[in-house]
Design a protein that fits this description.
The chain contains 7 helices and 5 strands; from the N terminus they run βααβααβααβαβ. It is an alpha/beta fold.
Length: 137
């Protein structure tokens, strides 16, 4: 089982978020017990700003057991198609990289996505398995 991890779950852990850290950390542990944890190049780019160096980011991800899995061409094309469908349907969100690329990567290259952004991903990527680490998820 390959679980793609969204930026928000990792930020919860790295910043020791008082509301979400415990649940996100437990979800990461559970997913790791069930298989492999990966992050796309998009998530790595979003996380890079939290760390003083590339080595610090790499070490933090290794500590959590998260591997780097760059997006392939099929996932990139799916993101663009889904973005177009979303905009044609009246969608107003402008963040294609942070949302559509992460979801398409998870859909094409992984088995599921661990994220707290439940509504958007579930609405636009209906065939993607979403895991929400929060108790309400």
């Amino acid at each position: 089982m390959i679980t793609a991890v969204d930026t928000n779950v990792l930020v919860d852990v790295f910043r020791n978020d008082p509301v979400f850290c415990a649940a996100s950390a437990e979800a990461l542990r559970q997913c790791l017990r069930e298989g492999r944890l990966v992050c796309s190049d998009i998530v790595w780019a979003e996380l890079a700003g939290l760390f003083e160096s590339e080595n610090a980011l790499r070490e933090a991800m290794e500590t959590l057991g998260v591997d780097y899995l760059p997006m392939n061409r099929e996932a990139a094309i799916l993101a663009g198609r889904m973005w177009r469908r979303y905009r044609q349907g009246g969608g107003t969100r402008q963040r294609v990289v942070a949302d559509f690329l992460v979801a398409a990567h998870a859909k094409v290259q992984c088995d599921r996505l661990l994220t707290r952004d439940r509504g958007f991903y579930r609405a636009c990527f209906t065939e993607l398995t979403i895991l929400d680490p929060t108790p309400r998820g």
